[in-house]
Amino acid sequence: MDALSELRRAGDRTDRPSLARSLVAEGLGTAYLLIAIVGSGILGERLAAGNVALALLANALSTGAALYALIVWLAPLSGAHFNPLVSLVLAFRGDIAPRIAGFYVPAQLVGAIAGVAIADAMFDMPPYALSSHLRSGPSQWLSEFLVTFGLIGMVWTCSRMRPVALAGAVAAYIGAGFWFTATDFANPAVALARAFTDTFSGIRPIDVPGFLVAEMLGAVAAVALFRWLVPDLR
Length: 234
Description:
This protein is mostly helical and 234 residues long. It has helices at 3-12, 16-47, 52-78, 84-93, 98-122, 138-161, 166-180, 188-194, 208-229.
């Protein structure tokens, strides 16, 4: 059964135990995503001996591979969004009930913040430390707008027209985004959580609002365009 069918099944569930399982799956998946992002950033930086390109390559490959595995693993339980914007956009389109999205978003945020602490602890870092990594300015915001626009457009299109390709497409796109943009968050939960790790993957808390605005604008622009590009196949 494809990921979109599983997503719709998750949205159609109304009994409390099923909703609870879906929320746990979303929180777990988002936690693992942050563990992959932050953990590979820490280890990559340690092993790269000052070679930032090598550390970034390790970070990108690990994140993309983990994201693919997580989507395939947890899509049958929750749809494997791991991103508040994905949940809200799919609720807007009617793929899941708005109340499901309303539950998913806090589960994703909690999972993301927990994942950061776990990743830091695995490498003997303080579980939570505010980042000092500067990520600000028009080039960063433009990059975040574009990478989010592409992600939401891909989810909107592939979930309707190529659902079996969705996991691979999203994972490949996010992994590549580490290199073709100046940023690669595309996810409010990721942006917020990465403010709590003073490591290779971190972002200063003061820089987070700019990223959130850019991500939201990118998602809105993608919905506006792809509602027209992709026909309603229901």
